[in-house]
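Bit of a strange request maybe. I'm writing a small parser for structure token strings and I need a real example to test against, not something I typed by hand. Could someone generate the tokens for this chain?
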Amino acid sequence: MNTTHSTLNESQSLDWDESISALIDGEDISFDLDNLDNSYGRQVWDTYHLIGDVMRSDELAIKPSDLFYARVSKAIDAEPLPVAPARRLGLRQGLSGLAVAAAVASVVWVVQPFMAEDKVAPPVSAPVVASQTAPSTELNRDYNDYIHAHRQMVGARPVHLVSYEFGANR
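Reply from user aminoacidic:
Good idea to test on real output. This should exercise your parser:
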């Protein structure tokens, strides 16, 4: 099977080169060695072995000179620096700050009644009437019985409620 490189199309050539590479690496044992019996096959075989020899041996590799390093360094210095476009600060940043402020204000507005103490000052201008009497204990007892019955009907709750009983009535 004498196959020359000129009769191989590009995809077959790539597959063939990969097969030779796999054969040299010890991965492909199904490759037919008779395919190497032409000038192109020998050239590819020699090239792959030369590459392997250079990779394994420092003596065969060409040492770059100081001039080479200087040229590479100069070429890197001559390249333009990558510049990112300026970041646009605009409406988006302003709106995000406004959203945060609105969220804080709404939390304060909702939480404030719960955090405030129940201190209600009596009006200064209203005179104290001596004829007002304290609520009767009978009214308090009826109210407490109603609250107690309501709690029994509602059942257990995950939140403990404060008792509204007055003094030593219960």
